[in-house]
Structure formats: C-alpha cells, structure tokens
Amino acid sequence: MKLVVLFLPFVLLLPACSDSANRQEIDLSDAVTENPADGVGHYVYAMNMPREVSPGEDLDVQMEWRTVGSVDPNARYTMDVRLIGPARKDFSIPSGANTVGELHLANWLSYDFAVPENFPAGDYVLAVRLRDSARDFQEVPLGYRDERLVGDGFYRLGEFRVRSGL
User: Fold this and answer.
1) Domain ranges of the chain
2) Is the whole model's pTM more than 0.85, yes or no?
3) I want to staple 49 with a disulfide (CB 3.0 to 4.6 A). Which of 61, 64, 77, 103 is the partner?
4) What pLDDT does residue 108 have?
5) Do residues 105 and 147 make contact, with C-beta atoms less than 8 angstroms apart?
6) Where are the alpha helices (DSSP H) in 21-137?
C-alpha cells in the first residue's frame, strides 16, 4: 500500500512537468516607458504563456499587470487581446471580469483564449490594449515604449506558434 501512495503523486506530477517545457516566461520590464503619457502607467510587467498551441486549444495566459501613478479609484477598463499572424482574432474582457487599474500595484490575471479550430498554422503575436469602460471605451494609454505598438492601440506582449492542425 505504501508503494501505491508514494507512486501516485509522482504520476500526478508528471503531466505538469512535461507541460512546463511548452511554457515561456516573458519579462517586459525593459519595454516600460519612464514617463507615461498621462502620468499613469498601466502595463503587463511579466507574463507566462505557451510557446505553441494547436487549433481548437486554449491559449492559457497569465499576466502581471502593474499600475503606477495617480489612479482614479472609479476607473474600469475593458481589456482587449489580439492574436496577430496568418489570421487575426480579437477577445474582449469586460471590466467586471478583470481588475486592471483598480488601485493595485501588481495584479496577476489568468485567462484562456480559445484558438479557433480553423486557425492557420504559423507564428503569432499576442497584443493587448485597454479601453475606459466609463468613457465611451476610449483607448487608455499604456506605459510601454512606442516600438511595442502594433496598431489600433495594441501593444505587442509576446509571441507563440500555432501548430498545424493536421
């Protein structure tokens, strides 16, 4: 009986260990601007995401959001995520489902973004932007250097690959 008890935890940990080889830790601290446009900087400081996913799988992403500067305690932000590559897909996370900017200095958020079954294989960029839910969804300046901009107010955070569905 002891052998089974000692063996069982090893078996349960094995999938988690093999999955970690497909994860990447991304440090974005060097991409942050010293003087945010409006005196407030919202940004993803670090993140963890897969290196590769297959069509139909979830892209499981953890982001460490930070906010610096004077924050409006009533501000609520919609977070938009865009996958950019051979195809494009947008996701919106409403203000009620995230806590970006709510007087937190550091805030880890975790999301699963469903990669469409028909998504073509290739290299993709994951990009993010914020919109002010209380101000007609106006874009909120993020605290990144301009070279991270990829259009429409989105900032490049990381890269991943979509495997061939065949």
Assistant:
1) 23-162
2) no
3) 61
4) 80
5) no
6) none
